[in-house]
Write a structure and sequence with these properties.
This protein is α+β, with helices and mostly antiparallel strands. It has one domain. 26% of the residues lie in helices and 27% in strands. The protein is built from 2 helices and 4 strands; from the N terminus they run αββββα. Strands 3-2-1-4 form a 4-stranded antiparallel sheet, with helices on one face. β2 and β3 form a beta hairpin. The radius of gyration is 13 Å and the shape is globular.
């Protein structure tokens, strides 16, 4: 997605259509949200945070409420561990 707001919009549209979020994750370099399409295939959308790649993989589950945090707080959270 081109922005965090665009990712938030996808989540809001999915919720309005009754499509549940399968998972939402911070990976430092991105924030991703996954849904299942009508055929049961996993679909992932993500927004690149602008943080630099690290030498260690990182994944931290988040909630949709976390996505409501201001952008700078989400980016800070993405870099706060490890």
């Amino acid at each position: 997605m081109e922005s965090l707001d665009a990712l938030r919009s996808v989540c809001a549209n999915a919720a309005a259509a009754g499509i549940p979020v399968s998972m939402a994750l911070i990976h430092r370099v991105s924030i991703s949200v996954s849904f299942q399409d009508p055929d049961g295939n996993m679909v992932e959308v993500f927004w690149a945070t602008g943080r630099r790649e690290t030498d260690r993989p990182y994944t931290d589950p988040i909630t949709l409420d976390d996505l409501r945090l201001p952008e700078d707080e989400l980016i800070e959270r993405a870099g706060s561990s490890g």
